[in-house]
Design brief:
With 256 residues, this protein is an alpha/beta fold. The protein contains eight helices and seven strands; from the N terminus they run E-H-E-H-E-H-E-H-E-H-E-H-H-H-E. The chain is globular and about 50 Å long.
Length: 256
């Protein structure tokens, strides 16, 4: 079921990786709360489908392909958003990848690919958005980290992903402190296993899923909407006194 659309409140919200999974659920939740979404995604086909769905519902939006590791392309994409709308209120850094390898089999090239998307991409997009937000004296950034950025205890080797998401957690803290005086809040969410394209291979393994349930007190995996609602809260005025925080959306995994 598609989210209901609240009256447009003027806020402009950029979501990277916005065409699918957590990104698309976040777009839906932002629209339901009155924001104008900007979808940035490297998957051109998925982006076209997402844009068409919004168009059919009469949602004012902007959609563009973007590789978040391309510095020049990131700068251009954010310049287009500001030129079109004259403002930028929310950034959700959601784009990410995972290449699950035992460490002794992890090539430098694969390590760098994950770090480039998951950490460098967050930096590049936050810096581009920050220029507008700091100048305006307002803004909210929410980074999608992972509970594995707060724990080394995964059920399978995933060093590059865990390291990149740990970097996102501390990048979030550092930016929050640096930009707090300019009215820009920076937070993160740390999801558990979420039912998306990124994890579909894992969910096909019954033995692994039994182990996932064993370490998840709430006894279920997350849906994209579970994470999206937390993101929208952190981006909203209801979280006006929250910055530098990483909110686990983990079914109790980290509480054990």
């Amino acid at each position: 079921m598609e989210a209901k659309r609240a009256p447009n409140d003027g806020r402009v919200a950029v979501v990277t990786g916005g065409a699918k999974g957590i990104g698309w659920a976040t777009v839906e939740a932002l629209v339901a709360n009155g924001a104008r979404p900007v979808l940035l995604d490297r998957d051109e086909a998925a982006l076209a489908v997402a844009s068409q769905r919004l168009t059919e519902r009469g949602v004012d939006h902007h959609a563009a392909t973007l590789d978040v590791t391309d510095e020049a392309a990131v700068e251009r994409a954010f310049a287009v958003v500001v030129a079109r709308y004259g403002r930028l209120d929310i950034l959700v850094n959601n784009a990410g990848i995972a290449l699950r390898r035992p460490t002794l089999e992890l090539s430098l090239a694969d390590w760098e690919k994950v770090i480039d998307v998951n950490l460098n991409g967050v930096f590049l997009c936050a810096r581009a958005a920050g220029r507008t937000m700091v100048a305006a004296g307002r803004g909210a950034i929410v980074n999608v980290a992972s509970m594995m950025g707060l724990s080394g205890g995964g059920l399978y080797p995933n060093l590059s992903y865990q390291s990149s998401k740990g970097g996102v957690v501390n990048l979030t803290r550092a930016l929050a402190v640096e930009w707090a005086g300019q009215g820009v809040r920076v937070n993160a969410v740390a999801p558990t296993w979420v039912r998306t394209d990124l994890t579909q291979g894992l969910f096909k393994d019954p033995a692994l899923m039994a182990r996932v349930m064993a370490v998840t007190p709430l006894q279920r995996v997350a849906e994209p909407e579970d994470v999206a609602h937390a993101i929208v809260f952190l981006a909203s005025s209801k979280a006006a006194m929250i910055t530098g925080h990483t909110l686990p959306v983990d079914g109790g995994f980290l509480a054990q």
